[in-house]
Specification:
By secondary structure, the chain is of the alpha/beta class. The protein is built from eleven helices and six strands. The chain starts with a strand and ends with a helix.
């Protein structure tokens, strides 16, 4: 029986591609076609997921990591990414993040979910930046601060399954009573499954080249599908 629904943050609660494209359009020296933007964003997103543990363990400074990720993202279109330009992009990106919103319909659904389930967030990232995003999304209306886990604050980062087991212990629930909603096949699905959690793979980018090493309990391919699934959980809880 599900008692808690926990979400990833970036590209799960909101569309991360939108602020990225806004910042790139404002700072890059030439217009980029739609397929180029999609490839560049995917590389940016993958770099974030695969390497943030290097910031957590102090292998890289946050500033060096931020510069490295945009260089990696743009490597297919240019090798001329200066540190000054990378800083300019990062400033534009952080500014664009101040305008993010929950996926359409999600605020109302989270309100309904919170009447029946414990709602949480588990995210990798710098604490100050992730807190700013969560505040912009007004997540405090749905999630108690004790149930927001940010890797930098804990000193634990996905894919370490202990970040999930620690959350369950704090919330006072068993592993099988928690479900994790995330967009990353390996970082979210595999690690949560290794902690004994149920998993909903929010594959709205329809990235079929990288698949979980485990079988997710649900696969969702659009924000509308996610909303419908969460509302079905509300209806199930209401009927029980």
């Amino acid at each position: 029986m599900i008692k808690a629904i926990i979400f990833d943050l970036d590209d799960t609660l909101y569309d991360q591609k939108s602020p990225f494209v806004t910042a790139l359009s404002e700072t890059f020296q030439r217009p980029l076609a739609g397929d180029e933007l999609a490839q560049i964003f995917n590389r940016f997103h993958d770099f974030n997921d695969q390497t943030f543990n290097q910031v957590t363990d102090a292998t890289l400074s946050l500033e060096a990591w931020q510069t490295a990720r945009i260089r990696y993202a743009l490597a297919t279109v240019t090798d001329d990414v200066t540190t000054d330009w990378a800083i300019q992009f990062e400033m534009a990106y952080q500014q664009a993040l101040t305008n993010i919103q929950l996926f359409e319909g999600l605020a109302s659904t989270l309100t309904k979910l919170s009447s029946y389930y414990k709602i949480g967030v588990i995210t990798n990232g710098p604490a100050s930046i992730q807190h700013q995003k969560l505040h912009q999304l007004q997540i405090e209306h749905f999630v108690h601060p004790d149930y927001i886990f940010i890797s930098e604050e804990l000193g634990i980062a996905k894919p370490d399954p202990s970040i999930f087991t620690t959350w369950a212990h704090q919330a006072g629930i068993k592993a099988g009573e928690a479900v994790y909603v995330g967009d990353n096949a390996a970082l979210d699905m595999t690690s949560a499954k290794h902690a004994g959690w149920q998993t909903f793979w929010f594959n709205h980018r329809q990235n079929d080249q990288v698949k979980p090493n485990v079988i997710p309990d649900q696969i969702i391919q659009s924000p509308a599908e996610l909303n419908d699934l969460l509302l079905a959980l509300v209806q199930a809880a209401d009927a029980s």
